[in-house]
Each structure stands twice: as C-alpha cells, then as structure tokens.
Fold:
Amino acid sequence: MLARFFGNGARLIGAVAVTTTLAATPQQGAAETLTDAMAGAYNTSGLLDQNRALLRAADEDVAIAVSALRPILNFVGNYTPTYNKSRTALGTTTLRSNPIFLGISLDLLLFDGGASRLGVEAAKETVLSTRQSLLSIEQSVLIRAVAAYMNVVLQLENVSLRENNVRLLDEELRATQDRFEVGEVTRTDVALAESRLAAARSNLASARGGLVNARSEYVNAVGREAGDLEARPRLPTAPASVDAAVAVAVRNHPDILSAQFRVAAADLLVQQAAAAYGPTVTLNGDVGVTENPDIVNYNRNASIGLVLSQSIYSGGRLAAQTRRAQANGDAARGALLTARKDIVQSVEDAFARLRVANANLESTAERIRAAQVAFDGIREEATLGARTTIDVLTAEQDLLDAQTRQIEATAEQYVAAYQLLQAQGLLTAERLGLPVQIYDPVAYYNLAETAPARLSQQGQELDRVLKALGKQ
Structure:
C-alpha cells in the first residue's frame, strides 16, 4: 500500500520547487470567475505554505528513521595530559604524558528485533497522514475563497438594490410632495415618505460598509483585490441523495484518511515499543593513532567487535513506553471514529443546507413576482386616489425585502454547494481542475526518504529544492 501512495522513483524536482508560479488571473477586460478566485487562493495561501513545510518535515522524519539502519562514522580526537608522581624505597619518580589520539569510529546496528524498521514504517504512515491533513487545509482555503467571492457578489447586488431603492423613494417623496401641494395627501404622508427615504439612505450606507468588509476579506482569502466578478458561476453537480454523498465522503475525505494512517502509525509504534524488550546487536570498530610528543613515539591501533546488549531492568521505562504507545493507539482509534461521525454529520448538514437554499431560491422568485405585481398595482391605484402613501411605501418595502432575500438565497446556494463538496472531500485543486501548478508532495519525499548526505548528488538536489522553496 505504501508504494501506491509514495510512488516509485524520483520525479522532476520542478514539481516541488515551482509550486506557485502560475497565477490564474482573469484576462484583461474579462469578468473574474469563481475558478479564478479559488486558483488565486491556492497560489497565495500562507496557510498552505505553512502546512507544506510541515509535510516536508514529516518527510525528513522518514529519512531520520532510515539513518538508524545505516553505519555511523565519527571522527574522534582527544588530548589527555597526565601527571603522576610516586615515591618508593628507591626514590621519587615523576611521569608526565601528553598523548593525542586521532581516529575514526564505526557503529552499525545489526539487530534490534525490527524496532528500527518499524520506526521507518511508522514514519511513512505519518507522512501519508500529513499529506491528507494538507488536503484538508487546502479544502478550507478554497471554501474560504468561495465564501469570500459570493459575499462580494452578494454585497455588490445589495448595494445596487439599495441604491435603486433610494432612487425610487426619492421619486416617491417628490410625487408625494406634489400631491400635498394640490391637497391630495396630508403632511403625514410627506413625513412618512421622508422617513422611508432616510431609512433607505441609512441602509445604503450600511450596505456600502458591508461591501468594504467583503472586499477586505476577499483580498485576505484570494490574495488580490476583487475586480468585476461573474455574478452567476456554474454550480457544481450535486449528488443524487444524501446516502450517495456520505458514501463518497467516507471513501475520500482527507480527515478520515488522515486518521486511518495515524492509527496504522500508532500500531507500528506499539510493535516498536514491544521490540525494545529484545536484544540488540551492534558492530563497533575504530582505527586511529596515538602520539606522545614528550617521548616522541606513536601507537597505531584498530579494533572491531560485536556488542550484544539487552535490558534487564530499566526502572519501568520500557513498560511505560509500551503502555504509552498503546494509549496513543487507542486515542488514534477514537479520533478516527470521531472523524467519521463528524464527516457524516457535515455531509448531512451540507446536503440539507443545499436543499433549503434551493427551495428558498424558488420561493423568492415567486415572492418577487407577486410583490412586483402588487407594487405596480398599488402605485397605479395611488395615483387615482384609491391607495394611500403608506400603502405604496409598504408595497415597495415588500418588494425590496423579496429581492434582498433572493440575492441572499443565491449566495447561500453557491456556498452550500461547495460546502457539500468539501464535506465529501472533493474540494481540492486537482479534483476541481483549477488552472494552477498542483503541489506534488511525492517529489520532495522521493529525494528525502533515503536520507541523502549533503555531499551526495541527491543531497545537493535537495538543498537546491529548499533554497527554491525559501524564495517563494
């Protein structure tokens, strides 16, 4: 299974080093789409950069675990001056010595009951879990971009609606004043029209403030100012039923997959802790030369040997480590169960929100039609003296409320549709086909997993990758 997820062979390093070079910006004069906004968020998210770095750190944990199975060479040097003065029946003797030792030591683990190899496999499972966590972060970045985009669209339409409302009420106030001058209405009618116009202007100011806030959030989520936005992007295809949506989520959601890999890693760590009770066999060797400048002599020596060791009593440390690993395994299983329940609930909630939003959108369309007919009729009747000013203002407010609810329901529909994708684990740049350079987590891993030395060719390539990443 690990080979399937990690891939075979090293991939082109450009897939890692150039992760944010494509900035999907709309063409000159073209309206910015929701796809453009999500691509911008993917390319500029500091949160994604942070978690990609955490994934690379997890990759290095595999390299660290692998290094425990390799020989360790150390340069050793020591200078140990000694002074010895003794007295015997023959007299006093003074000895001085200033030996200098220079050499190389070798340590190679030959057998530890499989503990080190289990550590490597546990680190690999942790890498797989971290990759899924990165996808979960990616989903949160993209859904924030969707919400920011639709909020700007909502606020733009709300401002336009409020501006139109102010114009209508201003006309209504002038008409009411004209009718007051000829004695058709009273001063009360004029005051009512003035009050509604003042309230409309206040609401317009609030709507403009909401638009400023929406644009600010858009910059934070997408990484650039909002230009002309496409008001009605294409909605993603919704699943046929909630059961179908849940089935997809259980198979694909990164939170569930991440928890599954953490359970596998915890089980391996339990086995590793149990292996620590067994014996360890290590090959030790050293070669060097000892010189004593005081007596101008030297001694060359070399040695090699096997060391067998096994813990007899460790004060309860090994038992505690085993129990800790088992407890962490239980916690990982609990986290998996919780993740599954949470995802199922989030799918059901998102599916319900989408259905409610769809129903609201249908009902608001009918509400607007009826409110428009009523407003037109009441205003016409008012010109004939059959309706009062308050009747006209009330009808106009009903129409405004219906139009406002429609644009809110439209934004809710889009956000709910993408929240359902997120709940199923499908809101990723790769699955959406966003026009971005998809970050390849395998490329860095394939360079790092073998723990290359800095002086090796692969190690030098890895250094170049880190430098390139640091310049983003």
Remarks:
- The domain at 72-107+283-310 is CATH 2.20.200 (Outer membrane efflux proteins (OEP)).
